[in-house]
């Protein structure tokens, strides 16, 4: 397994705990912003691609207080990998399979899922997709700040991760690293955990702006 890049503490040597340190750091940041309230949301980073292995935040834990071992290693279906079983045992989020699907579809190195108020409200207001244009902040997700309409896709929610994954695959917009799930939240990704974090922050800003505009 390769070590995920971006700001791993020097004291953390093995790749799984290095990933755990990144997940804990990013979750604490989002919790501080009010974007992972209670135990909501889940974050993942890619450990290896062949076979696909993801480190995903464990289910049911306060995202502001994660430790480096509060994660589960899952495969391409979101199923925990036995050889990486943690002590004490942790459960992966039910949404781990969707993280793996996003990685397979987009080649992302990290997938962050948060339940922000702006994502839920924007998904409700624009169920066919959230259109944005002529905003400097669009450059933060790799798009043009002028003369281009950028659509953040919106999909209906489901408790069936295969169904939700099918909807996500059908709705993906090339070059837009985000999908809003109606009445739920958003999935955002990047090549690295730091880029995924920046994309979350930029998309959240865009959604807040759009909601305030109308
Ligand atoms: Zn969720």
Protein described:
GO terms for molecular function: methylthioribulose 1-phosphate dehydratase activity; zinc ion binding. Belongs to the aldolase class II family. MtnB subfamily. Zn(2+) binds at residues 113, 115. Keywords: Amino-acid biosynthesis, Lyase, Metal-binding, Methionine biosynthesis, Zinc. The chain is of the alpha+beta class and 214 residues long. The chain has one domain (15-213): Class II aldolase/adducin N-terminal domain (L-fuculose-1-phosphate Aldolase), CATH 3.40.225.10. Helices cover 33% and strands 20% of the residues. Strands 3-2-1-4-9-8-7 form a seven-stranded mixed β-sheet, sandwiched between helices. A two-stranded antiparallel sheet has the order 5-6. Strand 7, helix 4 (161-171) and strand 8 form a beta-alpha-beta unit. Helix 2 (96-106) runs parallel beside helix 4 and helix 3 packs across helix 5. The structure holds zinc ion. Zinc ion (ZN) binds at residues 41, 95, 113, 115, 184-185. Residues 41, 95, 113, 115, 184-185 line the site of zinc ion.
């Amino acid at each position: 397994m390769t070590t995920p890049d971006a700001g791993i503490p020097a004291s953390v040597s093995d790749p799984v705990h290095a990933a755990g340190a990144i997940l804990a750091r990013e979750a604490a940041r989002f919790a501080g912003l009010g974007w992972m309230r209670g135990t909501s949301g889940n974050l993942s980073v890619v450990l290896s691609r062949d076979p696909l292995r993801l480190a995903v935040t464990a289910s049911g834990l306060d995202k502001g207080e994660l430790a480096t071992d509060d994660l589960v290693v899952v495969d391409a279906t979101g199923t925990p990998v036995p050889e990486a079983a943690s002590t004490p045992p942790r459960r992966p989020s039910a949404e781990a399979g969707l993280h793996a699907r996003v990685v397979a579809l987009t080649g992302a190195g990290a997938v962050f899922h948060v339940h922000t108020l702006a994502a839920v409200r924007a998904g409700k207001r624009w169920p066919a997709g959230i259109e944005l244009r002529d905003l400097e902040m669009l450059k933060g997700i790799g798009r043009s700040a002028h003369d281009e309409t950028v659509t953040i896709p919106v999909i209906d929610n489901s408790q069936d991760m295969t169904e939700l994954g099918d909807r996500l695959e059908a709705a993906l917009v090339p070059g837009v690293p985000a999908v809003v799930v109606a009445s739920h939240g958003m999935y955002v990704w990047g090549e690295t955990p730091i880029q995924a974090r920046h994309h979350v922050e930029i998309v959240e800003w865009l959604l807040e702006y759009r909601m305030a505009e109308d």
